Amino acid sequence: AAAALGVDPARLFKTLVVTLDGARAAPGAPGAPGAGVRLSAGVSLGVAVLPSAASASMKLVAEALGAKRAALADAATVQRVTGYVVGGVSPLGSRRALPTVIDASALRHATILVSAGQRGLSIELAPADLQRLAAATVKHSEPTRSVVNSVSDRR
């Protein structure tokens, strides 16, 4: 995808919708820890935006979104709640506002590309604009505390 767009692959970010179990705060305002769509008692949804080439640390995603555990949401739930199909989920414009965390590596770039809500369609924007528009938090990376596993962890 990066080659087709003529951009550095490090600037391509993916959007994951996750189930959050054991949220420490009741659902509330968009972007607040534990806020969002409640699926059942103690289970809600959230969004993680991270580099496309990275794998998410579900433990750190859960921590960043104020929950005890996180797991990828199933495709049917993703489409029902966001209005997007898996592979084309945008961190913007979802049917329902979901708490969102952006991996801090986005801040290394003047602009990043995220899905525009359709497979194969991307939008380019500044990380600060994405943070503002999605009412997102940024998980500031410590050497081993990013919301993503390092490349070596993926092997």
Walk me through what this model shows.
By secondary structure, the chain is an alpha+beta fold. It has helices at residues 2-5, 58-64, 75-82, 127-133; strands at residues 13-21, 38-40, 43-51, 55-56, 69-72, 100-103, 112-118, 121-125, 137-139, 148-149. Strands 1, 2, 3, 5, 6 and 9 form a six-stranded mixed sheet that branches. A hairpin with a 2-residue loop joins strand 7 (112-118) and strand 8. The two termini are 22 Å apart.
List the keywords.
single chain, 155 residues, alpha+beta, six-stranded mixed sheet, two-stranded antiparallel sheet, 10 strands, 31% strand, globular, disordered C terminus
SSE pattern? HEEEEHEHEEEHEE
- The rounded Rg comes to 14 Å
Q: State the share of residues found in helices, binned by percent.
A: 10-25%
Number of helices: 4
The average pLDDT is 84
Task: Supply the helix-strand structural class.
Answer: alpha+beta
Write down the oligomeric state.
single chain
What is the molecular shape?
A: globular
Strand content: 25-35%
Largest sheet: 6 strands, mixed
Low-pLDDT runs: 26-34, 150-155
SSE map:
Blueprint: H1 2-5, E1 13-21, E2 38-40, E3 43-51, E4 55-56, H2 58-64, E5 69-72, H3 75-82, E6 100-103, E7 112-118, E8 121-125, H4 127-133, E9 137-139, E10 148-149
Parallel strand pairs: 3-6, 6-9
Antiparallel strand pairs: 1-3, 1-5, 2-3, 4-10, 7-8
Summed up:
The chain is α+β, with helices and mostly antiparallel strands and 155 residues long. It has helices spanning 2-5, 58-64, 75-82, 127-133; strands at 13-21, 38-40, 43-51, 55-56, 69-72, 100-103, 112-118, 121-125, 137-139, 148-149.
